[in-house]
Each structure stands twice: as C-alpha cells, then as structure tokens.
Amino acid sequence: MRIVVDQSVCDLHGQCVFAAPQLFRFDAQGELEWEAEVGGELEPAARKAQAICPASAIELRP
Amino acid sequence: VTGPIVVVGSSLAGVRAAETLRAEGFDGPLTIVGEEPHAPYDRPPLSKELLAGKSTAADVALRVDPALDAEWRLGCRALALDLDRRVLATDGGDIAFDGLVIATGVRPRTLPGLEPVPGEIFTLRTLDDALALRSALAGAPRVLIVGAGFIGVEVATSARALGCAVSVVSLDPPVAVAGPEVSAVCAGLLTDAGVRVHAGRRIAELARAAVVLDDGTRLAFDVAVVAVGATPNVEWLAGSGLTLDDGIVCDASCAAVGVDRVVAAGDVARWPNALFGGAPMRVEHWTNAVEQGAAAARTLLHGSGPHTAHGSVPGFWSDHCGTRLQSVGLPALGDRLELVDGALADGRFAAAAYAGDRLVGAVTYGIPRALARYRMELARPPQEAVA
To answer: Residues B285, B289, B290, B292: what is their CA dihedral angle, to the nearest 10 degrees?
Structure first.
C-alpha cells in the first residue's frame, strides 16, 4: 500500500504521528515525514492514521 | 450479531462506526438514522472557518467511504427504544434491528434567561446553528459570549475577525481544561486580539440585550452566544433498560451495560477508559469519536472482552487567536507543568503535565511535534487511576 499526503490540505495536527508513529513523524523543523510504501502488517496502522486525520489529507493506494 | 444493524446518529462517531462494521466484514442490512436533515458534516470548522466566512457548508462535508452500503434515514428523530422487540421507534416509523449503535451525541446547555432567541441569542452545535450565527455576525454587532471553553474562545476569535466588538464572560478561566498556566496564556492571547475577557465572573442580572456581572460591569450586546458545555442526548432512552448516568453507561468495550448487542460511541458514551485506570469518563473530543466509533463497531461484531476494550488517550485541539492549542492526555490533572520548548510568555510553547512523578498530559501552543513522545508514553498501558 502507498501513502499519499496532500500537503495542500495537511494542517500539521500531528494526529497521524500520534496514531501511527511507526509510519509518520515530525522532522526537526516540524514538517511531516512518512513512509511512502507500507507492507501488509502496517496497513492497519496506516488506516488508523487516515481515519484520525482531521484534515482528511491522507490517501491510501493499493 | 446476525441480523440488521441500526446506527442512531449520523455524525462522526456514527459514521465511523458504520464504516468499521463494513470493514470488519458485516454484510447485513445497515441503516443510519440522523436527526438532522443534512448529510454528515464535520463539526470543528463550524466555530472557526465556517463562522469566519472562510468555508461554506459544502466545505465541511464529512468524508464518508463512498463504498459504504447503508440506508440513510436523515431528518429522522429517534423517539424510543424497545429492547424486548428490538425496535427503534422514530418519527418516521419503527425500525427493527438485531444490533444497535447509539451515537446521539450531546446538545448545548442553555442558561435560564439566555435561552436561544432567533437572530439574537445562540448556542452552537449544528451546521444550522453556525449558519444562523454567521448571518447574525454580519454588520459587526456587539457580541457577548458566555463561556470560555473551546467554542467560546473560537467564536470570540471568529467574531473579532469579522470586526465585532467581543466580550467573553466566564466563571472559569479560558480553556480551563488545559490547566491554569495555559489559561493564563490564552487570556493574554484573547486580550491581545482585542477580546474583553471577564473571567471568574458571574452574570448577576439579566436585562433586555444586556447583562450585569457580579463586579458591576454592564455589558450590552446585539448578539449573545451561550457556550457553557453540553448535555448527552439520552432522554429518548428513558425506560429502555439502558443504564443512564450523564450518558450511556458502557463497559470497557463500549457495550451498554445490562443489555445485549447495544453499543455506544462518541460524546454520549460513558465508559471505563483502560488507559486511565478504568475511570468511567465521557470524552467529547473529535479524535475519541473516531476511535470509539470504530471500537464500538468491533464490539458489536466480536463481543465484549479484553480483545475489544477501548483505551483512548484524550486529545483535543482548538484554533484561536491565530494559533493552535493542542493537548494529549489530561493536563488539568497535573500539579506541575514542565516547559519542554518555547516560552509561555511568547504564546508559543510545549509543556508536559505531571501529577507527582506521573505524566498525565502534555500541551502546546504552536509546537505539535513536541507532543509526539508524550502521546506515545500516555498510550502505554496500563496507567494507574488518575481521575
């Protein structure tokens, strides 16, 4: 699965970082970093992050 | 659950519960009942972007899985629950169910003498409330806001952006849930934004379009907004067999206690939060509605037990005064706030809250990345009871 984050919508709430720290993190400047490719065992975490994004900025592609 | 499932409540918790039922393999009939006529929408923008005129009703539509196969009964009010016959009575007729998700949320409290009056005295919960208030704020009236929780301070910010003269009256300091140090910062931000803050004050007298506070201050207003918290929508469940006590009393998996195949989620559910020592709580936060909607759906399909227990780290955000207040855990339970970044005086900081040696929460204005490690620590079960 591929994670796409719409940077024009992302508001840096950080809820994805809280929900799925294995996949999302803040860099030293406070910008969002994430794993673009996710293996099967982390797909539930990716879905959790997508659901909890207040800006609906996260898209998951098969 | 083998037969039809009905979800009562078409807002965030109800919709996420319905989506989770499908994601977890439920392929029976699914009905979503919503009192409001609108398609599901997101509430956080109502007091912010929508009120300030930066977004429209279409912009606040809630993202709903397009593949969700459900019958929508919108503009349909739940009236009563008959658990012997397993029937939900609504003003649009009876609906039979096998499993039931209750996510009927809360409604704003009102104050005697300041009950809603169209065009003049408002509460803010629904899209219609927000659109009506937005109309009333055109023309920069004098605005009185009673209550300084999230809604109060957000409406104050939005009304200031529209050029209104804004006064906030509150018994509690602003955003009291974030703890006293943060309240002081918030009060400063509001004052800098040109909002008159009367914290720690009661309304002693009500007059026509004016109030007099207990310190003798008279505040005339054109528009008043009462934002003093919310009450769970449970009256329709009286006599149903559900246990009601400031919400629907649930077990650790969000199953309503004492009955079969009924779960509750979101603002209306009171459950023992495993991450906070099993202290029963209601959490009126956006993130909990998402997580608890999903948890309640899993419980309906897979039963109550440790495998479906819902542990939630409370968390909120509030956009006001051009910045964002964000919190994880329950920082107001702390007796000590430790600064970890920035400076309180600058209105940009992050701090961790401790009760004794125990981390109970963390809070920031403007530095969300600083919360990440505390959020992880708070999510590590089990915590001792702190509430």
So the answer is: 120
What tens digit of pLDDT does each residue of B83-120 get? 999 999 999 999 999 999 999 999 999 999 999 999 99
**Closest partner CB to B372 (pick from A18, A51, A52):** A18
**pLDDT confidence tier of residue B385, bands split at 50, 70 and 90:** very low
Count of Cβ atoms closer than 10 Å to residue B111 Cβ = 15
Instruction: Give ipTM to 2 decimals.
Output: 0.92
Helices (H), chain B: 12-23, 127-137, 150-161, 180-192, 286-302, 372-378
Looking at CA atoms only, how far is residue B70 from chain A in angstroms?
19
Q: How far is B62 from chain A (nearest CA, A)?
A: 9
Report H helices in B174-271: 180-192
Q: Which residues contact B54 (CB under 8 A, 6 or more apart)?
A: none
Q: Residue A39 class from Cβ within 10 Å (0-12 exposed, 13-18 middle, 19+ buried)?
A: exposed
Q: What is the pLDDT of residue B381?
A: 65
Mean pLDDT over B223-237 rounds to 98
**Contact between chains at B372 and A54 (C-beta distance less than 8 A):** no
Write the pLDDT tens digit of every residue in B34-70.
999 999 999 999 999 999 999 999 999 999 999 999 9
Measured in whole angstroms, the distance separating CA B277 from the mean position of its chain's CA atoms is: 22
Closest residue to B372, CB basis, from A26, A52, A54: A26
Between B186-195, B234-243, B302-311, B374-383, the lowest mean confidence (pLDDT) is in: B374-383
Rounded Cα distance, B365 and B351, in Å: 9
Residue range B152-180: mean pLDDT, rounded: 97
Helix pair B12-23, B286-302: axis angle to 10 deg? 40
- Total residue length of chain A: 62
Pick from B124, B148, B150: which is nearest to B325 by CA?
Answer: B150
Helix (H, G, I), strand (E, B) or coil at A58: strand
What residues have CB less than 8 Å from B58, skipping those under 6 apart?
Answer: none
Strand A2-5 vs strand A24-26: parallel, antiparallel, or unpaired? unpaired
Per DSSP (E only), the strands in B75-141 are 78-82, 87-90, 93-96, 99-102, 106-108, 121-122
Q: Does B44 touch chain A (CB under 8 A)?
A: yes
Closest CA to B255 of B313, B290, B306: B306
